[in-house]
Amino acid sequence: MAAHYAEDVDSAAVMALLDPYVSSSLGLTYDPAHARVGKQDPVAAVRTIGAAIRHVHLSDNDGSVDQHRPLGTGTIDFPAVLSELHKIGYCGALELELGQHEEYLVSRDYLQQRHAF
């Protein structure tokens, strides 16, 4: 079971609430785009909630709303986010939350050009 990380909740508050219950079967789906819309640093959020991350959604935005844009077309530093996920030992799924096939290709090219995976 994974609780979906909310845009309007501070990551430290989430961990304070969930920490006593986090286990291999209870954790968070982390979405850096939601952190960005919530005016949080997506990399710092990984550090804060890292022990609870069970799944990761990836899409980009400009910080105003969750736009589900291709990676590299917004304001999120995905190489830094992925590096931080690696540092905390996350080795689970990374799910691109996009609409059109072309958006997946743009995201793939962005990550490959930055050697992010």
Would you write up a description of this structure?
- The chain is α/β, with parallel strands linked by helices and 117 residues long.
- It has one domain: TIM Barrel (Alpha-Beta Barrel), CATH 3.20.20.150.
- It is built from five helices and four strands.
- The chain has helices at 11-18, 32-37, 42-49, 78-87, 101-113; strands at residues 2-4, 27-30, 53-58, 94-96.
- It has a four-stranded parallel beta sheet with strand order 1-2-3-4.
- α3 (42-49) packs parallel to α4 (78-87).
- It starts with a strand and ends with a helix.
State the CATH topology: TIM Barrel
CATH homologous group name: Divalent-metal-dependent TIM barrel enzymes
Gyration radius from CA atoms, angstroms: 14 Å
| Classification by helices and strands | alpha/beta
Relevant terms:
117 residues; TIM Barrel; 5 helices; 4 strands; globular
